[in-house]
Structures are given as C-alpha cells and as structure tokens.
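## Example record

The block below lists the input lines for one assembly entry, exactly as stored, with component labels intact.
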Amino acid sequence: MTVPQGEFLAVLGPNGSGKTSLLRALLGLTALAGGSVDVLGRPPRRGNPAIGYVPQHAGFDRDVPLRGRDLVRLGVDGHRWGFGRLSREDRTRVEAALEAVAAGPYANEPIGRLSGGEQQRLRIAQALVGNPHLLLCDEPLASLDMRYQQEITELIGGWARDKRGTVVFVTHDVNPVLGYADRVVFVVNGRWAAGPTDEVLTSETMSGLYDAPVEVLRVRGRIVVVGEASGAGFDIDEPHHLPEPVGAHQ
Amino acid sequence: MIDQLLHLLPYAFVQDMLLAGVLVSIVAGLVSRFVVARNMSFAVHALAEVGFTGSAGFILIGLSPVLGLLTGSLVTAFFIGALGLRIRERDAVVGVVMAFGLGLGVLFITLYARYATEAFTILFGAITTVSQGDLMLLVAMAALTIVGLGVMYRPLTFATVDPVVAEARGVPVRLISILFLLMLAAAVAEAVQVVGVLLILTLLITPGATAERLTAQPGLATAVSVGVALLATLGGILLALVTTVPVSFYVTTIAFVCYIAARFVPPAVGRLRGARTT
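Predicted structure tokens for the full assembly:
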C-alpha cells in the first residue's frame, strides 16, 4: 500500500499486532523479516531528519532537570556530537515550535511537573521543530483524558492540513481521530485491511479480520466494536477487551 | 594556617596536585550528572572496588597503582557492558562481577605482605601521597576523559533523559551506553586518587544530586555540579595540606554540606528551578 503526501493514516489493531514494529521499521530501527518498504521515496534509514516522532506519553520523573524548552531543543541538536550552543536560527526555530503548540507559558517549567497533556504538546513541538515531512505517532493519546486527546489530535491534524504533512498515527482508539484520519489500517494477527474509516470499520470487514463474528456499532458519533469471541463486549477504547484473534495461541 | 598555605603553594608538587584536582573535579562534575540521571550508583561502587583489586595487583607486580586502578575499573566496565546493559539485569550483573573482583583483591593483599598502608591509601584516598609520575598520569587521564565526555555530551544527554525519541532520531543509544560506561570507569579511577574507593560516591554522586536540587536547566545543572566538585576537591586538598586529617574527610564533608544546603534552599532562590509552587 502507498501513503500519499498529506494523508493522515490511522493504524489500528489489538496489542501485539505489530503496530509499533511498523513504526520501528519506518524509522530504520528494525529490519523487515519480509517484504519491503520505502519512506519518503527511499529505503528507511536511522535518524532521517525528515521524520518527526511522537512517542506514547510516559511521564517524566518529577525532578528530572529538564525544562519544556530543553526537550524541544533536543529535537534540534540532541543527536549532534559535542557541546555547543544553539545558533540564533535554531533558537528561533525552538521558539516557533513552542509557539505553534501554545506551550510558551510553561516552556521554562521542569518537565516532570507538567500535566500529561502539556508534556505531549511539548513532544509534538519536539517532533515538529525539525520541519519534518512525515510524522510518526506511537499511541500519542494513551493515558490522556478526553480533552487533551482532542487537543493533541487537533495539533497533529492541523499540522498535516496546513503543511501538507503526512501522518502515520498508531492508536488503539479510533474515535479521537475520526474527524482527521483520511484512511485507517486495521491489523489483526498478520491480516489487515485498509481504506476509508467507513469501509474498514464495518461488521463484515472486521469479522473477516478476526475470523469470528464481530459487530461494529455507531453510537452518537462514536464507533464501538463488539465481538463474541470472548463472550463479553469489547470496544477499541479498551484494547485489552479486544478478542484474541483466532489462532493466536497455535 | 593561611601563611602555611601561601608558603606551600609555590611548590611544583602542590601545583601539580591542584591541577590534577581541577581536572578530576571537572570529570566528576560531568559524570555525576549522568550517574544520578541513569541510576548507576551501584555500578560506580563496583567499578571502584574492582579498581582496588587492579591497583593491588599492579602494586604486587611493581607497576603503577593508578594504572592498576584504571585497568581494574575498565575490565569491570567491560564485563558489566558485555553481560547486562538492560536496567533490569544490570544490578545483578554488577553485584556478581564486584563480588568476584573483590575476592581477587583479598588474594592480592594476602600475597603482598607490606600492603597495609597502601591498601589504606587506596581505600580512603590520599592524593597528597601520589607520586609525581602518577600525578602526571592522572592529569593526562582526566584531560582525555574530559575530551571524551565533551564529544558525547549532547547525545548522552538525549539518550539519558529521553531514550525512546533519541533512538528514533538516530542516536546510537546502545553505543552511547557502552561509551559512557568506559568514561565512568576512567572517572572512577581518577576520583579514587582523591577520595579513595570507599568514598567514591562523594565525588560521583553528590555534585550531580546537589545540582538537580538547585536548577531544572540542564546546562546550568552541569555547571553547578562541576562547581560543587571543584569546591569539595580543591577545598579538601588545601585543608589537608595544612592539617593532619586526610583529604577525603574534607572532601566528603564539603560535598555533604553543599547537598544539605541545596535541600534547604529557600523558595526565592528556588526560582532557579523554575518550579511551580505546587
């Protein structure tokens, strides 16, 4: 499959289906066991400056000596050898990135004391400060409350729209990205389906992927996936409730 | 006392000692920032104690104890690096290697009858008794370590505070871990000359821990850390020159006072932290 420039692609699927491995392959950190992939027209390579990366929110230690702006700065020169001060141009870029995510008011706070949403905003500034063409996001909304989920998704979606940037967005919950994702990929145990949300997230397609009866409901603008495999209800909100794909233990 | 100091300062060996003290402090200040952030106190201890074994072994065969220390801690770093870089297994590996290394140390002490004084020196430190040749060796080692740490400073910082994104941005996180372990081994071998094996943490933990209390700004924290190490080391050397108490007592005391003072910094100065009043 091909992801064209400017597309917002949501990658969905239960835990262990290889979503993070996909991102690692795109980043050039893991070699593919089979098949091939090109990133921005070339084979993946480590440290490609045209790729921005937003990880899952993992809280910083309260006392880590690092301010918000220092985190963003690492996105500019953290990979360079040696000591060194930022050039004026680079300083301007850090300021602009902080501005773009409206993190100015807390840019000088120790990062460990900021809320999860504030930390994720800084993460996005860190990823965007190098003016990437492609943004890879690995569960950037996990463990954030609903309001922050919306803010963070809007920041990423807005960037894709304004800069014609490409986004690969790994998430276990499709609902926050419903208004942004141009296409979704749903991966289950090596099987996958890709297409517009309305075509992939259907009872028919999902039942085929899981090889078990699965029903997709649309309730008040949200999508809920319910399966019979475990005998209990589950939805994409709660990845642990997704049914084990048939054959997973064989 | 001041008179005595002024009388001693013109001597070449005193100046060499102070030069060594300055360089070792810079190494210690830099390294301790990362030791604290990477939770490596136990590794520091192991590197120092097996360094003791190396030192004892080298004295036994008539070689420089400073080189022996460096060899001991580098070999230990190699084993720790080869056997376990993942946090989960690191402590166990460090313990295993340290226990065996100290066992060898016991053997060396037993084999060398006149060892008691030398052992005391290595365990508790006495830069005032290091030979002229070894002092120059120490200066060279410390200068090299500073260059090494300088070269890896930014990627080491990135890999320490934000390893996941650092890896995604192409920082060779694993290589950095191994290189830092080697720098740490060298730093331990150097700091032991000042404060001894048993008091090593006073130079490789306290400065970094003090700095973390005072500021959230990484560059400033490094500067504060180096400052604390300098104050403790130079203060310790100067006081030891004019009294009969060993250097290490003064160094540990000065460093401890700095740390306690940093814990009680009033909120006004705490603005340096840029902290929210929560």
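Residues 2-273 of chain B form a domain with the ABC transporter involved in vitamin B12 uptake, BtuC fold (CATH 1.10.3470.10). The CA atoms of residues 32 and 204 of chain B lie 4 Å apart.
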